[in-house]
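Inputs:
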Amino acid sequence: MSRRGTGASDTDERTDDAPIEETMSRTGPADRALLPTAGGAETWAALREMLRGHRLATVTAVGVLVAGTGIGLLTAPLLGHVVDLVVERRGTDALVVPMVLLVAVAVARGAATAVGSALVARLGETVLAALRERFVERALALPLERVEEAGSGDLVSRVTGDVSVIAKSVRQALPEFSRSAFTIVLTLVGLAVLDWRFLAAALWAVPVQVLAVRWYLRRAAPVYAEHRVATGALQHQLLDSVGGVRTVRAFRLNGPQLDLMEQRSRAAMGLALRGIHVVTGFFSRLNLAEFIGMTSVLVTGFLLVDNGAVSIGTATAAALYFHSLFNPVNAALFLLDDVQSAGASLARLVGVSGPAAAPEPDGRAAPVDGSVKVSSLDYAYVPGHPVLQDVGLEVNAGERVALVGSSGAGKTTLAKLIAGVHRPARGSVTLGGADARELGPSGVRRAVTLISQEVHVFAGPLAEDLRLARPDADDEALRAALATVGALEWAEALPDGLDTVVGEGGHRLTVTQAQHLALARLVLADPPIAILDEATADAGSAGARVLETAALKALEGRTGLLVAHRLPQAATADRIVVLDRGRVVETGTHGELVAAGGHYARLWAAWSASRPGTTADAAGVAGVAGDEG
Amino acid sequence: MPAGGPTGGHVLRGAIRGRRRSVVAASLLGMGHQTCEALVPVIVGVIIDEAVAKGSSGTLLRLLVLLGVVFLVLSTCYRVGARITEAAGEQATHRLRLDLGARVLDPRGGADADRLPGALTSIATNDARRVGAAVTVLSYGASALAALAVSAVALLRISVPLGLLVLLGIPPLLWLGHRISGPLERRSETEQERAAHASGVAADLVDGLRVLKGMGAESAAVSRYRRTSQDSLAAALRAARSRAGHEGAVLALTGVFIAVIAVVGAYLAMRGTISVGELVAAVGLAQFLLGPFQLLTFVNAEFAQGRASARRIAEVLAAPAAVEPGGAALPDPVAGRLRLRGVTLGALRGVDLDLAPGSLTGVVTGDPAAAQDLLRCLAREADPADGVIELDGVPLTDLHPDDVRRAVLVAPHDADLFETSLLDNVRGPDTPATAVERALTASAADEVARLLPDGADGVLTERGRSLSGGQRQRVALARALAADRPVLVLHDPTTAVDTVTESRIAARLRDLRRDRTTVLVTTSPALLAVTDRVVVLDGGAVTAEGRHADLVAADPAYRAAVLA
């Protein structure tokens, strides 16, 4: 009965392996509007739909498994027959037939189980692959606004955590659960065939089992959920402390950080122990059911043999049948919990993959050039706190316009509205003469590329990262794009050149290199309009200048909108638009605005003041850079 | 393996020794449990023999009571034993986690060299858990051995030849099963790798969703995921086929084995050597015995994993310290005079530098590596290969690194914020409230706090990534200022802050650090303009120094470096 011996450590494994991301999203702000979760009926419908294409496979798999289990059940009556032969003092020759039959049964059962399990696995894995692919497709198509509203952690947790919970169930729980279930059902049938009164006797165990399962599920689910949260918090704390080890040491925070670690670790341990308490309590209760059932089958056997209704061999077979039920019953009931959590995960996946993406417009609208027109735009993240008010802006095709303003002026929000990341509350965005609403999400994205402050290097070979922007690009095109932005030199100097695995778990690129890649992707995607949102801010002073040059190269031949906080970069633009508290307050060339003595002139003065006696010089530098562009 | 530190064996033995009592108690209880499990089929056999066959209801009642007692003992032993042994494993894991945490965060450093935070976290969670699991399964192993012993005695008492047949038959049976499962293990590993890879790709794509949407690459991303998903499917199917084959083969082998036992037993029973009940018991025991044998195999596998994990843990625990503590005491009070002579490390080639107490000095270098190495030396993250750094006349190498950091705070450019409130990030364990207030104002982090929904008490999620780059820098700067150390070294503290705010910060910073030694490693003119003196590092050594305005006027190279 190894199931019992290892049962508790199985739980341990399961709870500890729970994905961190899942918990991260749950520990996040509670007031977030999480992505939808499907209801029970909807989940069932989705499951049925997924299985529809595999009806034949389903029937075959179930059929083979049932046959295998059925054959296996012949063992007990055969053993009973052997006992009868002994009791009846038949000669040893009589043993040959049962011996051959027992071996045949063993082999046939093994073969049927092998084939059946493989079929069930194939079915489960195939459906699972289709499910996760469909889910990822829908997830990536969700409007960004919706994802940000829910926090990206919610989506990440579904894409990794829930998918792996279901995979684990399909891979481990499903085969064992289905085998156990068939064994239980067929054994009960077998008992009934021996004598219906044996079945009635065995069923005395059921009420206790039902109570035990209810007891277990009620307690286990919340403990496991809490434990997942606690291990997530622990893991998070470790990453936080270990990732920030230099800061920890510099500020001498080892004591407080270790205390936090100890608290989180202790909390996780406490919950793990509570989980073990529940599991062990559950199996203890099942022991009681075993005893009741066993006793009742033995007493029934005694009575039936006593009044001559059955032979001693039959009574033996019934006892062996029931004894052999111990393991499958424990396994099936224990796995109910897995089945339950797989169901919950499935509902979370179906919730996102269910509703089809918003219909794309007919596609007749298309931008004719790279011009951008924004009129009377309003936007607020929180109702009542407008970030943009009545913003109007016109950018000609090929023009380079800098957006300038202090933090919180609404520069980034305006950039996101033009790029179609957010939809305006009022007003309109026109790209190349076509209304953004008529272009639809994919039309807008073909017209505009937005490079934001957030850098992300996609895990995998560097070339694959670039190909996301243009899947059909050959190596030459990739090199050309890198060369355009001046990144080819370092890219080729990487350990494996363009095949170097970068991103999470691979070669770590600097912030500057990552932004360089983003600019190379822009060149590959080749949209008529590009928006750079402080794309050079995080790179430190040396990197910023390299990236500014790269950005100018990447913008060649397209309309450029730059959100800039380094004024020299703004000064090189064809035109500068100054935002203040959500409104456009000034617009004009660098010279005009400095001369006008307004908002921009004050910014420029502040910048120049830190560079004593070099105002003219800096403007000169700006001029030179402008000539290059 | 570094000399002197604990080895994997030490770690594993230490974990077990720490839970000695639990392991012994759980083993005894586990033995009780397994013995009773073995007794169940024996008693069933006796009931068939003595009660059912003979029709004696009194005997039936007595034996059923006995069966009830066996079940009670079995259940209690299991419950108590499992709880003890699992708790022992959890506690061992907890202890190891804290030991690892303490080693990694140790002021002497060294454990985090060449290891990514993710890898260290994985060691502190997964490897610690596996060592804990090895502690847990010890008692399961002991109980399996007990079950083997009891069943062996019972079988041999029934019939010596039958007993020997069962006991000698099971090991080759398990060996055969193990042989069959060889490819299975490899395939399972591949399956898990592929699944993890697919999951990683999906998470990575979702992580970069903004970037994907920014360039309209969703469909390219979906097809990339589909490829890895199909890869994962293929590996999963190969593994599933192996697994199914293995299960089938084990079932068939077991079935044949039971058939042989049954027929041999029946032969013996017909010859009158054993009774019918003994035959039933023998068959039941043969079935039962597979359990303990499988349990032993499982224990063995867990132990092997535990040993490998203990080795990884030992490597971290035994990592040599990056810097060794010296015996000198920190001057009290610290005046804040720094003197560098011929400091050489990495990109630094003989740096000579004197920083007077209370001075505000700018350090300009075009070489990021030189800046990094200078910061590491000043923070005593590393000691110079050559040359000396003195604080108030005491070489840093004579001080404990923690004491150095009590006096000198080096705030890196890519400062890490912690996942707690803005205020708690800024406030150290013993920072006075007024210092926090002043630091928040000086760094303009008070403006950041005002923009947060919950103000300064708002929790910064994902290590401050909920803030913009400039906001993050301001909070980090506030934290550095609030610590109020005699010597403060700031590296590029305002690169993502807008010009107007930067000028304001520069003025306030100078004011706040008036009587304290401060070093600004930066090329920002706004910051350099408020310094007393600027030192230019080029080629790893000091090449120029003077006032910012003078250098701007006289030195074209300097002008190019700081003004653009």
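The mean pLDDT of chain B is 86. Flag for discussion at group meeting.
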